[in-house]
Amino acid sequence: MSTPTPQVAKPAAPKPKVQKEDAMMIQKELINRNYHELATAHQTGRKISATFVPGNLNELLMCFDFARSLPETNQLQNGMRKKSGKFIMDAERDGHSEDVCTYVKSDLGMMLNSEVGPTGEALPKPDVLLLSYTGCFTFMKWFELIRQKYGCETTMLHVPYQGDGKISPNMRDYVVKQLKENVIPTLERVSGVKFDIDRLREYMKESQKAEEDLVAVLQSAKNRPSPIDGYFGAVYYIGPIFTAFRGSSDATTFYRTLRGEIEARVREKKGPMTPDGELTEEKYRLVVEGPPNWTSFREFWKMFYDEGAVVVASTYAKVGGVYDFGFRHNPDRPLESLAEYCLGCYTNLNFPQRIDMICKYIEEYQADGLLINSIKSCNSFSAGQLLILREVEKRTGKPAAFIETDLVDPRYFSAANVKNRLESYLQMISQKRQAVPSAPSIVRGAAH
Amino acid sequence: MSKLTEIVQRCEALFEDLHFNAVKEWKAAVPGRKAVGYMPWYVPRELIHAAGMLPVGIFGGGDQLEVIQGDAYYQSYICRIPRSTIELGLTGRLDCLDGMLFPSICDVIRNLSGMWQIMFKDKYVRYFDVPQEYSDAVGGEFYVHEMQSLREDLAKLAGRPVTDDDLRKSIAVYNENSLAMRELYAYRSAKPWQAPTSEVYLVSRAGNVLPPEVHTLLVRDYIAAADAEPRPKRDNARVVVTGAFCEQPPLGLIKSIEMAGCYIVDDDLILVNRWLLDDVVTEGDPLLALSQSFLHRSASTASKYDAKREDKGKFLLDSVKKHAAEGVIFAAPSFCDPALLERPMLQEVLAKHKIPYTAFKYAENTGQMAPIREQAGTFADSIKLWSAA
Question: What Å distances lie between residue A397 and A109, A339, A367, A439, B65, CA to CA?
Fold first, then answer.
């Protein structure tokens, strides 16, 4: 019998440095600064509002000087920082069903854990909940739960669903009236700041500029190779405009900088930046439907770029506003424009509209197919996605595939399963190409 | 066969008939008749009726339908009612319907409306939004417009206008039906041993497929027949069942709760029959009258926003008090977002008022009743043993 060799602890290999574009660094700084502003808001005499990403009325909230919190963003940050698993289990122990949205449970679990936010600073109780009930039924229950716990002042904005695939004057008028009769008076009362519609107009002018630049960035993926990843990378791009910054000069600067960077990448025929550096060989171009998984975000993304798969367009990048089909905030009709913004958010679109959008993306971005990341937590996105898959395949002739994960519950991310499915799907695309050889992989520097 | 048995058997036959022969027979009786389906929890059926059509409640496939094709459209974490409804549609069982309405109850049914538009292109399909803002000038005006738009659609489908007079007559018909349903629920609450919920449910459910005029008579016949046939009174616990407003529990589950020693004295099953709490005004603008009833005199459910924190649980507490209930059973379908997100809030309110409760989940095809019987039995025992102390 040989003597076992004593185990010698090896020094941990240094973590490879994560590669980021300049704009990504600015984005991170903005988000962190916002968390600090929230943490210190009450000390600095500011009131705090909370609202959701779809139907986020950021310009309006800025008119009342609120520090602005977005509960989904808080929980996705907690997910990325590996904090959400414990929060969810704590909420379940506190009586919340294992069947319901994990964003909600992570938020409630965070409350049970002394309100410590993603950056480690405590997040104070909001002074007002702006319940913009846009495209997601769960939002209503989420804020009812928070109101029950904290007794926060709550103002409801019911945004009707586009069941017929259009915005009727009745729907728009209903939202505008709620803004005038309920939302604005409540925000005035809570903040102590009088509403100034010209101030709103000024913010909306800023929004327009940022929206123009964001659309240019997202549509840059029509190039071959795509200079961006329109799903994983887009998470960084949409961050400021979907959260506490739309309408601010910070957002305008961010999007101008970002657009400049991306346009330079287009000129240089560069592929997208990934955490491991630039993707130099674009083998597959995909459209993705559904939100990402946050608890294993990097691992998930790596599965794509390791295979040379680039997401050229995603529906998730439209969840806080669909700008690439022409909508812009309009300072000439500010309240009507806010209403149309809410009514037009992606999850407020009906199924035929969603399918049309995906088919258009596949065509206009010359994608190889559709991948659906079905999220257990999110019925608004997920219920019926298997029909989307069938319809898109039927209409485009392009292959589609289906994977299942969750937003912030690490128990529902099975890396091996996801990887297997993704690899099988990419093989399927390759086989299809061999049958119809029309879409070669794009190597950086290759002639176009 | 007693009158009571005859009525219950008739209702059970209607309940079990997933080919909707009652609807087909109604349509065949007069050529050109049309029927429009609706899903839970609420649509203003008066509009369908006023257009001369039969409103038909579609509450899934229950525990007798084998779902094969419907499962191919949904992930494992979606509730059962949309998949069994798709199964009903794809197997031709809903061919007798000329249209379908999908109310704003949750994201799953909302998305099903779009799926229906794609899958059943030859049918009239509409997502029907109700207001979550309850003032006449804002939510009310929106709702009146939505109803007007539905009225115009139904008029096109019917091939004739739907006049204010038509609507007022239909409102009167449904007022009578709602009154009969309130009488039935009041009777059960007063004498639950005479009118077990396993029967009351079937009688209520018959209203999904029968014309309201016929259903009203049936309800009253049942009350008279049940009262004429004395049944033994047991020392059961009086409970309210809540959370079952969309996907329905199997009949066996209701029976199991009763067999376990509970009298169900109030519930939110097939809420559409009792949504409006009193008569809708039959004079003046009929859409305005329907709107005002919805906004100011309707029941509460998880899919309806509670405008104030103090409103949360009030409807349930009032029900417990009104029906002298000794406890509450939270029975919610698995993966039902509205019911399961609402549940902790209601439980907190009940706990504050020291009202005992228990909770479980089901699916419309739940087959194993032993655990539910045990849980309900233990709950009933605990009420009987401890609550009087």
Answer: 44, 36, 11, 14, 34
- In chain A, where are the structural domains located? 22-443
Span B338-364, mean pLDDT? 97
Interface residue A348 vs chain B (CB under 8 A): no
d(CA A90, CA A325): 42
- Answer for the pair A303, A422: CB distance below 8 angstroms, yes or no: yes
At residue B239's C-alpha, the angle toward residues B233 and B243, to 5°, is 140
Neighbour-count burial for B193-221, b at 16+ CB within 10 Å, e otherwise: ebbbbbbbbbbbbbbbbbebeebbebbeb
* Phi, psi values for residue A310, rounded to 5°: -115, 135
Residue A442 in contact with residue A281, Cβ under 8 Å? yes
B107/A384 touch (CB, cutoff 8 Å), yes or no: no
Instruction: Please give the backbone phi and psi of residue A218, each rounded to the nearest 5 degrees, phi first.
Output: -65, -40
Pick from B118, B68, B109: which is nearest to B88 by CA? B68
Task: Decide if A173 touches B, using CB distance below 8 A.
Answer: yes
Tens of pLDDT, residue by residue over A26-37, are: 888 999 999 999
The pair of three-digit structure tokens given for residue A116, joined into one six-digit string: 């410590």
Structural domains of chain B, with CATH: 17-163 (3.40.50.11890)
pLDDT digits 0-9 by tens, A214-237: 999 999 999 999 999 999 999 999
Q: Is B328 exposed, middle or buried (0-12, 13-18, 19+ CB in 10 A)?
A: buried
CB contact at 8 A, B333 and B302:
no
pTM of the model: 0.95
A350 closest CB neighbour out of B104, B107, B114: B114
Contact A168 B111 (CB under 8 A): no
Query: For residue A26, what is the enclosing H or E element?
Result: helix A22-40
